[in-house]
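The protein record quoted in full:
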Amino acid sequence: MPRWLDERESRVWRAHLALHTELQAVLERRLLADSGLSLADYALLVPLSESPDGVVRARDLAASVGWERSRLSHHLTRMQRRGLIARETCPDDARGAMVRITPDGISAITAAAPTHVADIRRTFIDHLTPADLTALDDIYTRLRAALAEESEL
């Protein structure tokens, strides 16, 4: 027999889903309008731009953003066409692929980041107290650990 959500649990779950959807839509719209980058582009450019040499192995990039290989491959193809990234062979494994941020990719993320971070602050962070941030950090850490355990089963 399923353990149905009670009224409070249902309200919190639905609020979580609605917030996630609405926040992503607002941030996506603003990022696209301000920089021409999608949230997906941004999500991939961040770890590439933070890598010391601007190169990340494709499978590690997929893991860092939680994407399946096919989604990553399709999106990288689009980004490569736009000149944001380049693909290279892996020096240690001929079957592996490396992804390199290009100068255009660096310019794009550098130009987009200040406004995007300001949007994140304005739509999310600035509405939370330090205690809220501490609580959410704890909550998200526990939930992600529980999901990691689930995926191991």
In short: The mean pLDDT is 95.
